[in-house]
């Protein structure tokens, strides 16, 4: 009997693993359809506080939705305009910057040769291409603005989501015959909305400080690097590092090592202050995900959906965790994703050690 149960569990595990593989493959293949939907959904989540505030002021739902969407259109149009204008100028100047950077890199290798440190120039060039950082900027911005460029589809999704938002709890309660579905939705909405709202405010502040600081230091395209810092600040762990690389290299090309060090210290000061003090103060420990899980989720969602997946890696993982917590067979995955181990339940059966 036990052997049969073991075989059944093994078959269920294999079937579940195969289903997960098929699901992941399908989600990856359908990225062109899914990414605008996800973008619209998360924009609606961020917009819900404004919509709720307008409704509390006795503004009718249609007018409140229209006003909320107008605010979003203004923000998106501003971001696309700033990114497009700055990136166009940077793209024209990028070959010059890359040539200067390559020259500095060759001078560094020559200096190392003079110090008795011999390195294969071909091998080092294959392993480390200093101009690649500028290429990465284009790839990241194109991926993000590519989704934002589908403005009509995204805005339609936002409008429909906002209209439906107030009725979702009642629908879930009627569909599942209880309050479990409604409570799960409320928890997802509250936690994701809180995370995105706080992260957006901190990212805006980060981008503004970076832009002003780089402008004072004389670094070209300070607004572009501020926008890049704003966008990449949504990416946990790696975002702030990736945002610092292009302006540090650009300062090195423009002014030399001293100014590049000043730019690096600017990013360190911003990230230490905001990442270690401001963000934990406002978010507390409510994220509910371990650091390892956050990093792995960054890699996974980035592999799935590129830059947009990296930006949304934390809220997507939070949603998956909350959904799994309410399942019997897969709750163990939610426990592994959690930042803290579950509290041990006391042994009340009377069979424990005396």
TrEMBL record:
> Which Pfam families would you find in this protein's record?
AI-2E_transport
UniProt subcellular location: Membrane
Q: What kind of membrane protein is this, topologically?
A: Multi-pass membrane protein
Source superkingdom? Bacteria
Keyword annotations from UniProtKB, A to Z: Membrane, Transmembrane, Transmembrane helix
Q: Which protein family is it in?
A: Belongs to the autoinducer-2 exporter (AI-2E) (TC 2.A.86) family.
One biological-process term from Gene Ontology?
A: transmembrane transport
One GO cellular-component annotation of the UniProt record comes to: membrane
Q: Which InterPro entries match?
A: AI-2E-like (IPR002549)
- The yes or no answer to whether the keyword Coiled coil is present is no
**Transmembrane feature ranges:** 12-27, 33-51, 63-88, 139-163, 201-228, 234-253, 260-278, 298-324
Query: Protein name, please?
Result: AI-2E family transporter
Where is it predominantly found?
membrane
């Amino acid at each position: 009997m036990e052997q049969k149960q073991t075989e059944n569990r093994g078959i269920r595990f294999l079937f579940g693993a195969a289903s997960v593989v098929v699901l992941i493959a399908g989600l990856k293949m359908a990225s062109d359809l899914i990414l605008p939907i996800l973008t619209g959904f998360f924009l609606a989540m961020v917009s819900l506080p404004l919509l709720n505030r307008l409704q509390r002021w006795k503004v009718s739902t249609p007018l409140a939705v229209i006003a909320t969407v107008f605010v979003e259109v203004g923000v998106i149009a501003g971001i696309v305009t700033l990114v497009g204008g700055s990136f166009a100028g940077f793209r024209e100047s990028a070959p010059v910057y890359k040539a200067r950077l390559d020259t500095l890199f060759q001078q560094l290798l020559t200096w190392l040769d003079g110090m008795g440190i011999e390195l294969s120039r071909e091998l080092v060039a294959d392993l480390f291409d200093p101009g690649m950082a500028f290429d990465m900027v284009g790839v990241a911005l194109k991926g993000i603005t590519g989704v934002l460029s589908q403005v009509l589809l995204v805005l339609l999704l936002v409008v429909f989501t906002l209209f439906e938002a107030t009725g979702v709890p009642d629908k879930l309660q009627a569909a599942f015959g209880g309050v479990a579905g409604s409570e799960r939705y409320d928890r997802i909405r509250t936690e994701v909305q809180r995370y995105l709202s706080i992260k957006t405010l901190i990212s805006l502040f980060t981008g503004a400080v970076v832009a002003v600081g780089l402008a004072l230091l004389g670094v070209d395209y300070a607004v572009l690097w501020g926008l890049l810092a704003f966008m990449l600040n949504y990416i946990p762990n790696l975002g702030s590092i990736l945002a610092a690389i292009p302006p540090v290299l650009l300062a090195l090309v423009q002014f030399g090592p001293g100014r590049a060090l000043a730019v690096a210290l600017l990013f360190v000061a911003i990230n230490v202050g905001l990442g270690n003090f401001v963000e934990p103060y406002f978010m507390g420990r409510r994220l509910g995900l371990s650091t390892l899980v956050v990093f792995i989720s960054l890699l996974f969602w980035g592999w799935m959906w590129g830059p947009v997946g990296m930006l949304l890696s934390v809220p997507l993982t939070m949603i998956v965790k909350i959904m799994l917590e309410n399942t019997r067979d897969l709750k163990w995955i939610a426990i592994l994703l959690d930042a803290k181990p579950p509290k041990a339940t006391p042994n009340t059966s009377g069979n424990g050690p005396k």
